[in-house]
Write a structure and sequence with these properties.
The chain has 400 residues and is mainly β. It is built from three helices and 31 strands. The longest helix has 9 residues. It is elongated, with a radius of gyration of 28 Å.
Length: 400
Amino acid sequence: MGRVANGSAGLLALALLTACSLSGAANESKELPGAVQRQPPVAVTPVDKAANVATDQPVVVSAQGATLKSVRVDGGKAGRLRGVLSGDGTRARSTSTARPGAGYTVTAVTVDTAGKQSETTSTFTTVKGDKTFDIQSITPNRDDTGLTVGIGMPVMIAFDKPVSDRIAVERNLTIRSSKPVEGAWHWFDDSHVDFRPQEYWPAYTKVRLEAKLAGVRGGQGLYGKRDVTLDFKIGRSQITKGTTDEHVLTVRRDGKRIRTMPMSAGQGGQWKYYTTSGVHLAMSREPVTVMTSPGIGPGQSGYYQLTVYNTVRISNSGEYVHSAPWSVGSQGNSNVSHGCVNVSPENAAWFIKNTLIGDPIIITGSPRKLEPTNGWGHWQENWKEWLKWSSLKAGPSITF
C-alpha cells in the first residue's frame, strides 16, 4: 500500500460482467493436414481447464485481428473478478484476486473487422486453501481513536494469524489520500504491519485504507478471508515540544504557538524514572488513570498507587502528560516525577481537550531514548531505517 497498483500502461477500467458459464471453446480449432498453423483469434491465460492456479495469477485475454467487446470472469459463489481493458481493445487483464478452491469461467466476446461477433469460453480452478487469515484490528478506528486524528498517526494493522508471504499481503494494501504523500509499510513481525508517511501527514487530509486481502496468499495453504476498507481524516497540525532541561511544553497549531505550559519531567536516578526523549504520539486520552509503581509491589519500598486526572498517554512504558497538583511548585524549574510529564490541573484539562490521538509530542534532553517499539514510536526511525522493514519500499499514495 502506499503505491499505485501494478497494471499495463494505458489500460482503462473495465467492468467484468456477471454471467453464467457458457459452453463451446471457440479458441480450439482443427487444422487440416499440412495446413499452416495460426495463432487462435483469442488467447486466454490461464489455459483452458488449468488446475491449481495461484489465486494472484492474473487472467489475461488477448485478441488477434479483432477487438474485445466484453470480458467476464465468473466464479459462482466466489464472485466475479474485476479487470481493465487496453486502450486499443485487444487485451484485458484481471485486477482482483481469485478465491482459493474456486472454479472460474472466462467468457470473451470479440468483434472482427467485418463486424462478425464471436464468443470464447475457458475455465480454470484455483489452488485449494487449508486456512484463512483475517484482520484482527486496524488503528485508527472509531472506538479507540476516533476517525479524526493527528498528523503523526500511523495506520496499524494486526492479523489474527502470522503471515509469511509479506510481499503478497503488502501489495494488496493501498492508501488513498486527498493530498499526495510518500509513504511505506513497515513489518514489526509477521502479525503486524504499519504505514506512515515519510513526513507528517498534511493537515486536513482525507485518507482511505483499502485492504483487498480476500483470496490473497499469506503463506502455505493460508489465504485472506475478506476485503476491508477504512476512511479517516487528519485534523489540524498540532505539535507539542518540551525539554527536560528548560521544563516547558510549547504547543503549536498550524505553525502558531497557542499554549506554553510549565512542566516537570522524570527525576532520573534510576533508568525507569527518566522521561524518554523522542517523538511520542498521543495514544489515548483518559479522564482518570490509576498509576502504580513500575516493578514494585505492595509493601515494598517505593511502592505507590495513585489516581491521576486528565492524562494523555505517550508510550507503553507508563508515560503520560497529566495533571499533577502536588508538583506545581516544581513545574517550570525542576524534574521530580517518576517519568511522566507533570503539568498543572488547569493545563492538563486544556491539553486533554485540545489533543487529538496521533498528535506528535516531542520531548528532548533526557539520556533515555524512546524505543521505536515503545508504544507508537514510529517516528523514532528515520526514513532509511523505516524502509528496511518494508517489503515493497516507498511509493506515493493514490490521490482521490
